[in-house]
From TrEMBL:
It comes from Elaphomyces granulatus. It comes from the Eukaryota. Residues 226-251 have a biased composition (Basic and acidic residues). Residues 219-276 are annotated as: Disordered. Residues 261-276 have a biased composition (Polar residues). This is C2H2-type domain-containing protein.
Amino acid sequence: MASGDQDTAVFDIAYECLSEFDKVYHSHGRDLTTRLFEMDDLSGGYSCHIVRKCDFMGLRNSFIFWADYTGALSLMESSLDARLQGFPDISSMFVELLEMISRNLSRLLIVSPSAVKSESDAPTSDGASSNTSRIWEDALRAIDYALDRLHFLGGAIRKASAKRLEYNVTSYLTEEDFLFRKYAAAIVKRNFPQARSSLHKQLGDTIAVRRKFMLRKRSHATNLTVRRDPHARKSPERLSVDDPSKPEVSGHRRAMRASGEPQSAVTKASKPNRQTPAFKKIFMPSTPILRSMISSMSSVHDDSIEYPECPQVKDNEKHVQCSYCLKALSAAQLRGPEKDNYWRSHLKEDLQPYVCLFPECVEALVFFTHQKEWICHMEASHSTDWPRKVHNIMWYCNMDHEPVEQFQSEVEWRTHMQDPYAHPNRRSKPPTDVQLAALSTRKQQRVVRDQYVCPLCENIPEKIQPFMKRGNGSDLANMLNEHIAKHMISLSLISLPWIDGGDADTEGKSIDFDESFKRLLNPRSEPLTPSQPSEIDRLSVDCPWLLHVHVGNWPPPQRSWTGHFLEKTS
């Protein structure tokens, strides 16, 4: 089991099963492992796909498909173990079935291949299988029985995760959006260089998804402004209306529509506003790093937030259109003394700037509009000490290193472990990927931050430091939450789409779809290398009905062989 409270029970037994599958294949040869045998109907009505004949290699492939489908052998933060946190009953069901597979693979290892071959060449007079052949086939049937149930459970969990498919970046974003996601992660990395790389990536994902939501919302709002020709009998086409209150479509785009020429999928609307303060800071020198007395990692970050300017309002207007979502805003509110608060409140409704920072949380890509909602979720789901625990997994290498070297991502750790120059005293060959997969869970540890350290700055905020000795703990925690919330608002502004003219305060401005996508970073900035697979489908299980399903509730197999091959380990 990995360090800390991370459970790896499913990974451990699944990896053991995979190793035993390979051992059986290499020790028994291709002739025996590809030998077909007749399978029993073990579905019991739970599966519509019944395998009548199979061989050992078919079962091995079935196991690999299941592992890939569920992430049982995936990296920690995207693994099946991470999804099953908080569901010990469901986890134990997986473990019990995997142990059944492991036990029967161990039985296959002690079966003599020559004995099975000789018995198959000389069958008994009554046509019945010999003892050794029966052990081989019955063990395979038991493995098939367990695999059938594993696939059932895996499908149920995937269906539960699919309920929030709209928040799955890998299925929701286009190729252009994936490019933006890399740039967004790099922006987060530049603004918060001391934050963990996994946090860079997650926040980059949220920026990309939020931006996609805003673009789709604006696109839908734009479609609603297209007027239908009341005299047309066919499906109404999009007509250009010469209305000064409507954004004018550019001549080039109008010509493309008329000619039927396909339009580029890369749009200027997909670019963020380079005039916003968040993007201006990209080209500024990096903030100098100061060391804190309490935290070993520290940085200083500006807490101020610079919002886009309010839309300009004419004297005779009752409403003015938001340049980002096209919603009609109250002109009276935008003229009044509280116009800034009104405008910022509207932007927060559009952006929903707050998001859960725990990647394994079921709410990991659910956005919050109000700070109180977000804080309530973070403290209720992850305790009031959540800033100390979020994104705190570290990989380490203690081979030929004093002190121990630490790595923020598994990718960095794997690269280091396979680097011969990093281990000059190592006589053996660098470890293989399979060996590293087994070693990874034992070379992880959770490093809890010091009290009141911001997980983005990796430093105690300057406003909190004067109150450290005499301040009330609850008040200090609230100040830290406020500090982190400001960071999230600042980052959320990167999601705002590019508005023609550079600012949001221009009236009647349209989004130009013609210009090509420009680089978002200066040449010195580098995109962040992901620390885990590109999939971010790390949603936890949301199917409590599985808690009432137990292995014993499935219909028993039809033959007596299961009494010997399905028993639990003593």
